[in-house]
Amino acid sequence: MKHETKMKQIGVIGYGYWGPNLSRVWSQNRRARLKYVCDLKEDRMSAARINCPHSTITKDYFDILKDPEVTAVNIATNIITHFQIAKDALLHDKHVLVEKPLSASSEEVIELTKLAAERNRILMVGHTFLYSPPVIQVQKLLKSGSVGNVDFIQLTRINLGKVKHDFNVIWDLAPHDFSILEYWLEEEPIWIQVVGKASVYQNVCDVAFINMHYPGDILANVQLSWLSPVKLRSSYIVGDKQMITYDDTHPSEKIKVYDMGVDLVREPDTFGEFQLTYRSGDIHVPRVDNKEPLMEECEHFLDCIEKNQPPKTGPKHALRIVRMIEAAQESLKNSGERVYLK
Ligand SMILES: NC(=O)c1ccc[n+]([C@@H]2O[C@H](COP(=O)([O-])OP(=O)(O)OC[C@H]3O[C@@H](n4cnc5c(N)ncnc54)[C@H](O)[C@@H]3O)[C@@H](O)[C@H]2O)c1
Asked: Which residue is closest in CA terms to ligand 1's atom 6?
């Protein structure tokens, strides 16, 4: 693949809830032109006609794929359709950015990965949080060693969300937290254990409590729900030197670093002789860039096309996340049994 530097013509496929955000970001991008928007539904096409007056609106994504001027497509359709649309796009030699998760099974991800390699095209998944400045900042803090050895991480992603009936809350929300954990810890979990419940639609889990054990004896817990009176996008990391909180909903202080902890000064000789010291030092609020993650993600996709370089959220990363989701599904089906990934 030659280095491609001219303006990229982009097609967004899927203009439901998320597609308009992608279309807005592509319309604002100076290195790209949103040439097409596609959706099967008439009402969504009408909305696209109003919001994207400079783009061609179509019902048939093959109109985009057959246009030789189109460099890349950004797929934001229902999860079950990702595989076929991405496959068709790669077969038409388009670069492909697919919304999370890349596909609905690891076999499908492997097939798409092979196809992208054969056609020398960029295949990337939209794990948006890996382009989010606070998530990147936390990763830097962890890598610097200032937090010490991580003991555990807790992530919460709950709100009164759109309850889906075609796939569950794990397929919908876990790609965010699983990709964040993978990025922060640079490891895959050893095992996953999930309990969940279908409160609205029969057999569609809408609340899930996920436990994971990582190498280095790190525990992680993820709470996901479409049924909550409040919106929480919060997490905390407990290390043996420092603790970090990350609250994605906070307008200005998304990350706080606490110089806090408990140290065991002396092992007891007899019962009752434990000596602990409690550290309760400063709280530091690091400055975080105010960049829009989705914009950063699209810029990165363009960079990868232009420089023919592997994306940060490329197929290998996408496969690890889909495998974690599949393990979570298996545990859910078996009432919370541990499912080992290694
Ligand atoms: N990164 C994020 O933060 C984020 C947030 C929300 C959704 N998403 C992802 O975006 C994708 C879409 O989610 P959504 O909530 O917008 O779903 P949605 O159901 O609101 O929209 C999907 C749209 O795709 C259209 N569609 C389906 N098949 C099509 C086809 N063959 N050709 C053209 N259009 C087709 C549907 O008509 C629908 O309008 C999912 O993969 C989801 O996980 C990502």
From this structure: 18
Query: Could you tell me the strand order of the sheet in which 95-99 lies?
Result: 56-58, 32-38, 8-13, 70-75, 95-99, 123-126
Q: Ligand 1 pocket: which of 13, 78, 296 to mutate (most atoms <8 Å of CB)?
A: 78
Q: Which residues contact 121 (CB under 8 A, 6 or more apart)?
A: 1, 90, 93, 94, 95, 96
Q: What is the dihedral of CA 15, 21, 24, 27, to 10 degrees?
A: -70
Pocket test for ligand 1, best of 24, 36, 39, 62 (most atoms within 8 A of CB): 39
What distances in angstroms separate CA 247 from CA 223, 233, 293, 331, one per listed residue?
A: 14, 6, 15, 28
Please report which residue ranges of the chain form alpha helices under DSSP H: 19-28, 42-51, 62-65, 82-91, 106-119, 133-144, 169-185, 293-307, 315-333
Q: Whose CA is closest to atom 2 on ligand 1?
A: 128
What is the share, in percent, of the chain residues with pLDDT greater than 90? 89
Atom in ligand 1 nearest the alpha carbon of residue 75: 11
Residue pLDDT, tens place only, 222-272: 999 999 999 999 999 999 999 999 999 999 999 999 998 888 776 666 666
Ligand 1 centroid, distance to 138 Cα (angstroms): 29
Atom of ligand 1 nearest to the CA of 128: 1
Q: Tell me the CA–centroid distance for residue 257 and ligand 1, in Å.
A: 36
Taking the C-alpha atoms of residue 32 and residue 80, their distance in angstroms, rounded to an integer, is 28
All structural domains of the chain, each given as residue ranges with its CATH number in brackets, are 8-121 (3.40.50.720), 130-292+324-340 (3.30.360.10)
